[in-house]
Amino acid sequence: MGILVDKTSDCPYINFSEQGLLEIEGRSITEDVFSFWQPLVDWVEQYIKAPAELTKAVIFLEYTNSSSNKYLSEIMKQLDTCAAHGNKVEIIWKYEEEDESILMLGQDLASLISIPLQFQEVEMEKVKMQKVRIKSKKTGSEAVISFRYWDAIVRNGHFDDYIVLEEDVKTS
Q1: Same domain, residue pair 8 and 91
Q2: Which domain holds residue 135?
Q3: What is the distance of C-alpha 120 from the center of its chain?
Q4: Mean pLDDT of 29-50
Q5: What is the pLDDT of residue 129?
Q6: In 3D, which of 34, 35, 39, 7 has the Cα closest to residue 23?
Q7: Judgement on whether residues 103 and 170 belong to the same structural domain of the protein
Q8: What is the CATH number of the domain that holds 67?
Q9: Are both 148 and 83 inside the same structural domain?
């Protein structure tokens, strides 16, 4: 079973799928890093015992504290172990345009593993504007969510629970 966590002001969005997609996006400044990150490290440890044909990790951080970096390092090392056992693993490290500190963090973490990271600079204005309006078939409630969260719902097989009312919703 995968893990799906929507991001908050101090914890990142997480989408860890048994189909091989591992996404981390947002900021990680939670005071209780163990409770947040240790289950993720444990999940990856179990996942790499029987990984998908391709494991693709996409990491896109706005900010992270040093305690969170320790757990990110552990996840990277687990993925490196997975690759060392002959499995195909890709790691994409995204960072906001001109965010040198997050770029440098990715470079530092890359130096700990043998998998080459793919670095991608992201224009934030475009990303922030991508939204979708959905309606729950069960409750009738509507919500405007990010395309990334909608993609995770689809990948995890829950898209039949919702109706897409509008794509590319403009919000202020």
Answers
A1: yes
A2: 130-172
A3: 14
A4: 96
A5: 65
A6: 7
A7: no
A8: 3.30.750
A9: no
State whether 11 and 71 are in the same domain: yes
What distances in angstroms separate CA 48 from CA 5, 56, 57, 80, 83, one per listed residue?
A: 20, 12, 13, 10, 9
Q: Which residues contact 19 (CB under 8 A, 6 or more apart)?
A: 2, 52, 155
Lowest-confidence range among 19-28, 34-43, 122-131? 122-131
Q: Which residues of 60-91 are buried (b: 16+ CB within 10 A; e: fewer)?
A: bbbbbeebbbebbebbbebbbebbeeebebbb
Give the 3-state secondary structure of the chain: CCEEECCCCCCCEEEECCCCEEEEEEEECCCCHHHHHHHHHHHHHHHCCCCCCEEEEEEEEEEECHHHHHHHHHHHHHHHHHHHCCCEEEEEEEEECCCHHHHHHHHHHHCCCCCCEEEEEECHHHHHHCEEEEEECCCCCEEEEEHHHHHHHHHCCCHHHEEEEEECCCCC
Shared domain for 144 and 113, answered yes or no, is no
Predicted model pTM: 0.74
Confidence category of residue 20, pLDDT binned at 50, 70, 90: very high
Residues 95 and 150 in one domain: no
